[in-house]
TrEMBL record:
SUPFAM superfamilies per record: HD-domain/PDEase-like
Name by which UniProt lists this protein: HD domain-containing protein
InterPro entries, alphabetized: MESH1 (IPR052194)
One GO MF term attached to the UniProt entry: guanosine-3',5'-bis(diphosphate) 3'-diphosphatase activity
Length: 180
């Protein structure tokens, strides 16, 4: 299948799942699929700037990356529809809700480190797209915590992809403009 067909098949699957309970972007009335297509956009452009990058694999991971965490989708369903490697990649990007909240991100980063570099790249792309103007309700502490988290992600995963490493680094710097 060509990348365009893979993209269409995968975004339809993900959009359908994320709209089952009408999931929206935080602080907006826009459907969640906007976030997924933004992450996939980062991945497609990174692929264009990276040697030896599995664009088909990475695009599917990008579009599916929140299905296990935020929808009723199961690992088995992903495996059946997209194969074991994709299901495992998405699983690594999924926080383990049985752990204390403050341990969840490092646990996920650790599991991502055992996956292919394209899975790391999706985590970088996810945070790049999320470092936008924070919601008005966020206080200074929350914004600083979010920036620190982004720095932890960068530190752990930067070796995956030089292009996305540089994108995330400059996004983190730009984010400081939102501090009070
Ligand atoms: Ni996400």
């Amino acid at each position: 299948m060509d990348i365009q067909s893979i993209y269409q098949k995968t975004i339809l699957f993900a959009a359908h799942k994320h709209s089952e309970d009408n999931q929206l972007l935080p602080d907006s009335q826009l459907p969640y699929v906007v976030h997924l297509s933004n992450v996939a956009m980062e991945i497609l452009i990174a692929a264009n700037n990276t040697k030896e990058f599995d664009i088909n694999f990475a695009t599917q991971i990008a579009l599916l990356h929140d299905t296990l965490e935020d929808t009723t989708t199961t690992f088995d369903e992903l495996e059946l529809e997209f194969g074991t490697e994709i299901a495992k990649g998405v699983s690594a990007l999924t926080k383990n809700n049985t752990l204390p909240k403050e341990e969840r991100m490092l646990d996920s980063l650790n599991r991502i480190s055992f996956q292919r570099k394209e899975v790391w790249a999706v985590k970088l792309a996810d945070r790049i797209t999320n470092l936008q103007k924070p919601p008005k309700s966020w206080d200074s502490l929350k914004k600083r915590k979010y920036k620190n988290e982004a720095e932890t992600i960068l530190e752990h995963l930067k070796d995956a992809n030089l292009y996305l490493e540089n994108r995330l680094r400059s996004k983190i710097e730009e984010y400081e403009q939102y501090f009070d």
